[in-house]
Amino acid sequence: MIPAPFNYHKASTIEEAIALSQELGEEAKYMSGGQSLLPMMKLRFASPQDIIDISKLQGLSYIKEDGDVLKIGGLTTQTELEHNDLLKSKYPIFGDAVWLTADPSVRNCGTIGGNIAHGDAANDQPALMLALRATFIAHGPDGEKSIPVDEFFHGFYMTALEPGDILTEIQIPKAKPNSGGAYHKVERKVGDYATAGVAVHIELDDNGVCTEVGIGLTNLSPMPMRLERGEEVLRGNKITDELIEEVGKIASEDCEPDSDLRGSEAYKRSIVNTITKRMLNKALERARK
C-alpha cells in the first residue's frame, strides 16, 4: 500500500529537529532510517501529517568505550553494529542479533535508536538492551534526560520518550572479564519478525559464581520483557544444568504470548523454553572463555 499524504521536513541539527517538533505538534514523527515507521505508514497503521527526517544529524553515529561505559550513537546503523571490531571482540551478542535482523538493505538504513524508540516488542534490540542493563540518553524540549531500560518500555508501542524527544545515545556497562552474552530468535523465514527470541548476558566471578545476569524476551508479551524470576534463580549461584532447566521452564511460564500466524501460544511457550536454555549455555560458554 501507499502511505497517506504527509509533509516532509529535514533537520540538520538536534535543536532544529526539536524546534520543528514543537512547531508541528505531537502528531509529528521523527524518522531516522524509516525501517520501523514506513512499513506502518504503508499499512495505514500510522498516518502522521508531518515527518521530521533526522537521519543526517551530525555526531550521532559512533561506537566507543568511554570509561566504564560502552556508548552507541542513536543513529548508528545495524550494519555498523554488525561490522564493528569492538563489538565483535567484546560484545558478540550484537552480532548474533544483527545477523538475524531483516536483510542487508534494511540493516544499511535502520538505526539502533529507531529500533528501540519504536517500542515494538517484536524488534530485536530491545531484548538486548534489557539483558545488557542499558541506559538511554534522550534530548528534548526540556533538555537532556537519562532513562534506565527498566523504565523505558511502558506498553504496546509505548516508551518513556515524550513528544519531541530524540534518543541520542545508548549506554551499556563496559564488558567485564568472565562475562558473555548471546541472542537468538525463531522466525518463519529469514528476515521475519521473531516468533520468539531470547537475549542473555551473564557475568561470573573467578569461582564461576554468577554475579549478574540479564534475560530479555522478544515478541513474547505486549512490550519487551525482562525474565526477572529467571534472573533471580541464577544470580549468586554457580550455573548448573539443573538451574538452566529451571530457568527455561520459568521462561515458558512467565512469558505472555498470543496465538497468531507465527504459532499458537503453546508452541511459543515451548520454543522459548528451548531458546532460553540454549542461550544460557552459549552465554555461559563465552563468559568462561
UniProtKB/TrEMBL annotation:
Keyword Flavoprotein: yes
Signal peptide: none
Alphabetically ordered keywords of this record: FAD, Flavoprotein, Oxidoreductase
FAD-binding PCMH-type domain: residues covered: 1-177
Native source organism of the sequence: Robertkochia marina
Protein name: Xanthine dehydrogenase family protein subunit M
GO molecular function: FAD binding; oxidoreductase activity
PROSITE patterns assigned: FAD_PCMH
SUPFAM superfamilies for this protein: CO dehydrogenase flavoprotein C-terminal domain-like, FAD-binding/transporter-associated domain-like
Coiled coil: none
InterPro entries attached to this UniProt entry: CO_DH_flav_C, CO_DH_flav_C_dom_sf, Diverse_Substr_Oxidored, FAD-bd_PCMH, FAD-bd_PCMH-like_sf, FAD-bd_PCMH_sub1, FAD-bd_PCMH_sub2, Mopterin_DH_FAD-bd
